[in-house]
Design goal:
Structural class: alpha/beta
Oligomer: single chain
Shape: globular
Strand order of the largest sheet: 1-10-9-8-7-6-4
Radius of gyration: 19 Å
Strand content: 15-25%
Number of strands: 10
Largest sheet: 7 strands, parallel
Helix content: 25-40%
């Protein structure tokens, strides 16, 4: 069963557990861009192959639109209640957004170590004050996705701390001031989405788990600044994963410590309608879900960087455990993060199993 457009999950009792995706969906090989994780981030050619290769050429619009429509339809065919646009136009979900704000330099790149030492790569530089661009780009992306969906499409944006940790700050003296300016620019995009009918808006802050002190000092405040002014019919979502690995089936990738979720949930609970966390790659202690006193938990129940397929019964068992701590109207099943690594066949199999498990409850 799919929700009517705009129907908040929290207002739909008596239904099976709801399902959603987090953001990225596998891209077809005929798109004119490559995902960032298909490149060796330590290679200097990364600048040419991903950052420099991105194009806003209008002649590619029909191709991107076709990929977006296909991504949405495939999610719906799997039974997903709240699909995303699949981020088909984005070579990198952080840098794509930054291109449409002033202050970012995508020509003279800088080399930085990112994600607490997980990546060493070249990144865009911040060389001026961050301000919103002339036209919010995600409105177009949302309209293309929603046009082919009877269910509400969720749109995703990177949060201020994640943008800061994905770029080189060569301009601002105070990081907290930089976070505020980025939040104000993102707020322009978010309000435009709401004005155009988007009812699920998600801000991604994986860096919260990498740098919990910065998250608690000014990150949460900056995130909520992004969401200010939204009407009550919009479901505000925050996603905090523990890190996207460099390739599929790499258990040695240094993930963030999911033990920080407790403090982060405490800081966000009640300020947004839904908080999204990883759980499949490393099950959280069940008492974590006791801390969701007001917000709903979007729980990652399938891994996004493992080729192993979680069975319906395995997913169901984990959801049953979580439901001993939270009522069903405040639990949403999802993948741990975006699905770009998996390819279409593997991603669809995992989504179908997840939906079957959720509906069985």
């Amino acid at each position: 069963m799919n929700l009517p457009i705009g129907a908040p999950l929290r207002d739909r009792p008596g239904m099976a557990l709801q399902t959603t995706c987090i953001g990225a969906f596998p891209k077809p090989d005929w798109l004119p861009i490559r995902d960032w994780f298909e490149i060796d981030l330590g290679d200097d050619h990364y600048a040419e192959d991903v950052i420099g290769a991105w194009t806003a050429d209008p002649e590619h619009d029909p191709v991107f639109r076709r990929a977006t429509e296909a991504a949405v339809r495939l999610q719906l065919e799997c039974g997903i209640d709240v699909p995303t646009d699949g981020e088909q136009r984005r070579e990198n979900y952080v840098h794509y957004q930054c291109r449409f704000f002033s202050g970012f330099d995508f020509t003279n790149l800088e080399r930085r170590v990112l994600r607490d030492g997980a990546y060493d790569c070249v990144v865009p530089a911040i060389r001026g004050d961050i301000n919103p661009g002339g036209h919010p780009v995600l409105v177009r992306d949302f309209r293309e996705a929603q046009a082919v969906s009877h269910a509400p499409v969720k749109m995703t944006l990177p949060g201020p701390l994640t943008i800061i940790d994905s770029t080189a700050n060569c301009h601002y003296r105070e990081t907290s001031r930089l976070a505020e300016d980025i939040a104000d620019a993102l707020n322009t995009e978010i309000l435009a989405l709401a004005a155009n009918g988007c009812r699920f808006i998600q801000v991604d802050e994986p860096v919260f788990a990498r740098h919990p002190r910065a998250a608690l000092d000014y990150g949460v405040e900056s995130l909520l600044r992004c969401l200010r002014g939204l009407p009550p019919e919009v479901t505000r979502v925050v996603h905090m994963c523990c890190g996207y690995p460099d390739r599929i089936d790499n258990p040695a990738y240094p993930k963030a410590d999911h033990g920080v979720y407790g403090e982060l949930v405490d800081a966000l609970d009640g300020h947004v309608e839904q908080i999204s966390i990883e759980d499949a790659h490393c099950n959280n202690p069940l008492d974590l879900f006791d801390r969701f006193r007001a917000s709903a938990a979007i729980v990652g129940v399938v891994r996004i960087a493992s080729s192993r397929i979680e069975s319906v019964s395995e997913i169901r068992r984990r959801l049953e455990q979580i439901l001993t701590r939270l009522p069903p109207e405040r639990v949403v099943a999802a993948p741990d993060c975006g699905l770009g690594f998996l390819g279409h066949e593997l991603a669809l199999t995992k989504l179908r199993n997840m939906v079957k498990a959720a509906r069985s409850l």
